[in-house]
């Protein structure tokens, strides 16, 4: 299947793959603003630059996975232009029907999950 010249928008795939990581990052980033006390010291390697590096690695691994798994890539291409609310049940159904894809994609995003768990 050929994609349009625009291809799929990276946020469509990353939204489907990493919505939880993004939400965690938003909570992580806003926690210091919500408190009157100075934030507790963060563990090493928990800077915004570290987070950007982890996200870049997850994005690169996702891209490589999709390029090497055309049926999965084709499925995510069908989600272009849909809202998260429209995508969510379709992604859930696809991953339920394809548990190996679910496991592989969870493995790809695991560094982001680990970062958020370590750096909360």
TrEMBL record:
A GO molecular function annotation here is:
heme binding
Q: Which domain of life is it from?
A: Bacteria
* Record flagged with keyword Chaperone: no
| Record key words, sorted | Signal
Signal peptide positions on this chain: 1-36
Report TM segments. Answer: none
Query: Where is the Haemophore haem-binding domain positioned along the sequence?
Result: 44-120
Q: What is this protein called?
A: Membrane protein
Source species taxonomy:
Bacteria, Bacillati, Actinomycetota, Actinomycetes, Mycobacteriales
